[in-house]
Amino acid sequence: MRDSDRARPAGRAAARDAFEHVRLRYFQLSRATRRVIFGAVLIGAMVLAVFLGWSPFSTFATTLLLLGYGELTLRYPRAAATVLVVVAWSSLMMVAAEYVSPHSLLPTLFVLLAVLTGVAAHLIRWVTPWITTMAALGAAALVSLAVATFSADAATWAAYGVAVAVLAYRLVQAGQARKRLAAARPEAPVQARQRVRDGAAERDGGAERSAPPPISVDDALGELESMIGLDPVKEQVRSIAASIEASRLRAEAGYASEQPMRHFVFLGPPGTGKTSVARTVAKIFYAFGLLETPYVVEAQRADLVGEYLGATAIKTNELIDRALGGVLFIDEAYSLVNSGEGQHDRFGAEAVQTLLKRAEDDRDRLIIILAGYDKEMSAFLASNPGLSSRFSTRVNFPTYSPAELVGIVELLRARRGERLQADAPAALHGLFEDVHRRGLIDELGNARFARSLVEAAAQARDVRVVGAGGSPSRDDLLTTTTADLTKAFNEITARFRGYQATPTLADALADLDRMAGLEPVKRQVRAIAAQLRVARMRQEQGLPAPPQMRHFVFVGPPGTGKTTVARVLGRVFAALGLLSRPDVVEASRADLVGQHLGATAIKTNELVDRALGGVLFIDEAYSLVNSGYQGGDAFGAEAVQTLLKRAEDDRDRLVVILAGYASEMERLLATNPGLASRFNQRVTFPSYSAAELTEIAALLAEESGDRFDDSARRDLAEVFAWVCAEGLIDGLGNGRFARSLFERAALGRDVRLAGRGGTASAEELTTITSADVRTAVDELADR
User: Fold this and answer.
1) What family is this (predicted)?
2) What is the DSSP track for 611-667?
C-alpha cells in the first residue's frame, strides 16, 4: 500500500478524534455553564456591533443562528451535516431555478425536495445520513438540470424520482450493513438464553418481567444531575456517556468500533449514592441500546457464596443469569476474599473466578459494578490480576459536605411534605459541620445519617405535639423545629462510640493557663494554636496555606506536665476541627513492640488505630531504639518504621507526640532521618522552680478540698528550695514530687486527727499543718 493511501484515513481519523475530544469537553460542562457561555457570546456580538456600526437586529439574528447551529453540530453532528447539505443544495437550486424559469414554483419545490430528502435520510439507519442526502440531492440536481433544457415541469418530477431511487438504494445498503454488524457480533449462545428464561421463571414464579419503560439519554443524565453533590462522579459519568455516543456515531458512519461495554468499581464510604448512580448508569447504557433492560440486581457475598465447594459456582451463575441484560451491583465486594485467621477463602475465590469468567463471556449483555471502601477495594482488586484488568474503570465517591447534607435533608423533607422552622437549616448546618469536622460522617453513613436524622426528628416532633395536648394545627403537625432536630441528632450520635461535646479553643487554652509555671511551654502552645487557626482561616477563604504541623517532640525531665500539655494540645486540635476527638492514647515501648518480628508491626498498627482521630502520646520514646542489643534492636526499628508510615499516611487524622529526656530524644531522632523530618516541632519543658512547686502543691490541695496553713506553706517552700538548689528535683520527678508530698502530708494529718480519739472541726479536717509537712518529708527521705 502506498504511503499516501495510508495517510488519508489517518488524517480523517485524527480530525474525527479531535472533533470527538471537543464534544467530550463541551458536554462535560454543566448546562448552566453552557448557557452562560452562549449569553456571553451573544452580548459580546452585540457590543461589537455597536462599535462597528452593524445592524443590531441582523447581528443578533446571525449570532443566534450560528450559536444554534454550533449547538446542533456538537449535540447531533450528523444532523448538522445534513442541514448544511440541504441549505447549500437549496441555495444553488434556487438560483438555477430562477435562471431557468423565473417567477415559478420551481424554487419552492426544490427546497421541499431537499427537506424531505434530509428527513428520509435520517430515517434510514446504519448508513451515514448526510452522505445519503448529498448522494440523493446531487443525482437529482444533475438529472433536473439536464431535463430542464426541454421542460421545467419534467425537471421537477425527474429530480423527485431520482432522489427516491437513490434513497431506495441507500436503504438496501443499510440492510446489508446491519447484517454485517450482526455477523461480527453474534448473539449469546442458546444455553445462556435458556438460563436467562429459567432464572427469570424461577425468580418471578413463571411470570414475565414487565417490559422496561422507554428512557432517553437526556432523561438518565437529568436524573444524575438532580442528585445532590457528587460533582466528580457526575463529570465522570458524563464522560462515559459522551464516549458511548462517539462510539455509536463511528459505528453508524461505517468505521470499525468495539462495543463500549465496561465493568466498574465504585469506591467510597457508605451512604454516598453508589447504588443510585448504579441505577443511573444502567439507564444510560439501556438508553443507548447497549443493555436490554435498565434494571439493577443488587447482591452481597451471601448471594454468591454457597455452603460447600461447587455450590458457590452454581449460586454465582444463577445470580448473573438473573442480572443478564442489565447491571449486577455487588456491594462490599471485598468481602468475597475473606483472609480471616490467615486461611485462604476457597468459597470466596470460587465466586471471584466464576464472576470473572462470566464478566468476560457475557460482557456484551452485562455490566458488573463492584462497590466498597477505597482501601479494602484496592486490596481486593490486587488479590487477583483478572479483577484489575476487567474492572479498570474506577469511580470515586466523595464524602458529602455539610451544605450537601443540609440539601439532602431539605429534599427528604420536601418528599415527606413537611416543613422546617426558619432557623432550622442554619442550626442543621452547624450540627453537620460538627460531625464532619470530627471525621465521623463516613462512619455515620453520610446520606443515610441525614435520612435517619429526618425520621428521628419527625418522631421527636410527633411526641412533642401529642404530648402538648389539645388539638394541634396542620402547621404543628408538619413543622419540624430546631429543638426536634437537635434532640434527634443527640440521640443518634449518642449511640456512636466516642462522641463527646467539642471543646472550644478558649476552654483548651484556659486549661493550659491554670497549670503552674511552664511559661515557655504556654507561649509555644499558644503560638501553635494561633498558627493552626490562621491556616484554617486561609483554607476557608481559598488562600494557600502552609502544611499544618501535626507531630511533636516533647523534651524535658519527668513530672514537668508533658502528658497534661499533650491533652491540652489534643483539645486545641479538636476545637479547630483538625481532630475528631480530644482523646489522648498513652503508650510506651511495651505497647508497640511484639514478641517476634512481624508481630511488632501488627501491634503498632493496632495501637495507632485506637488513637486515630486523637493524640498518640509515646512516653520515653527513646526506648524504641535500644542500642544495648547485640546486632541492633530489630524490634524497635520495626516499630519506628511502622509508626513513621502511619504518621504520614494518617496525618490528617492523628497527632503523634514523642516524649522523653532531651539528650536521649536527640539520639533517637538521629537514628532515622524520617523521624527528624516528620517530628520537627519541638516543645521544651523546663524543670519547675521552688515557687512553682509550692503553687502546684497548693493547687492539688485546693482540688481535694484541703489547704496548707501559713507555716506549712513556709515549710513547703523551704523543702522545694533545698531540693532545687541541690539539683535533686529532676530525679524526684518535679510535679510528681509535689503530689507525693501533698498526699503524704494529708495522710499524716488524717493519722494525727484519728489518734486524738475525739471529734474534729471542719477546719481541722481540711487543714494541713507544718507538722504534717515535716512528717511527710521524713517519710519520703527514708524512702
Assistant:
1) Belongs to the CbxX/CfxQ family.
2) HTTSEEEETTGGGGS-TTSTT--HHHHHHHHHHHHHHHHTTTT-EEEEEE-HHHHHH
**Residues 735 and 679: beta-carbon distance below 8 Å:** no
Residue position matching grid coordinates 498513652: 586
The x, y and z cell numbers of residue 581, run together, are 476527638
**Torsion angle of alpha carbons 686, 691, 692, 697, nearest 10°?**
140
In angstroms, rounded to a whole number, what is the distance separating the alpha carbons of residues 391 and 262? 8
Give me the sign of the Cα torsion angle 21, 23, 24, 30: positive
Range in 4-18, 211-225, 747-761 with the lowest mean pLDDT: 4-18
CA distance 237 to 247: 15
Distance between CA atoms of 549 and 656, rounded to whole angstroms? 11
Query: Which of 679, 605, 612, 609 is closest to 652 using CA atoms?
Result: 612
Give SS3 for 507: helix
Number of helices (H) and strands (E) in the chain: give both, helices first: 36, 14
CB-count burial class (<10 Å; 0-12, 13-18, 19+) for 497:
exposed
Q: Is the pLDDT of residue 185 over 60?
A: no
Question: What pLDDT, in 10s, does the model give residues 242-295?
Answer: 888 888 777 776 666 666 778 899 998 888 888 889 999 999 888 888 888 888
Residue 74: how many CA atoms within 13 Å on its side-chain side?
A: 16
Grid cell, residue 102, equals: 423565473
Half-sphere exposure of 595 (CA within 13 A, CB side): 0
Residue 532 pLDDT: 80
Centroid of chain to Cα 607:
26
Spatial distance between the Cα atoms of 16 and 257, rounded to a whole number of angstroms? 13
Q: Which residues of 744-772 are buried (b: 16+ CB within 10 A; e: fewer)?
A: bbbebbeeebeeeeeeeeeeeeebbbbeb
User: Which of 507, 446, 459 lies closest to 485, judged by CA?
Assistant: 459
- Rounded Cα gap, residues 271 and 373, in angstroms: 11
Q: Model confidence over 454-484: pLDDT tens digits?
A: 888 888 888 888 877 777 778 878 888 888 8
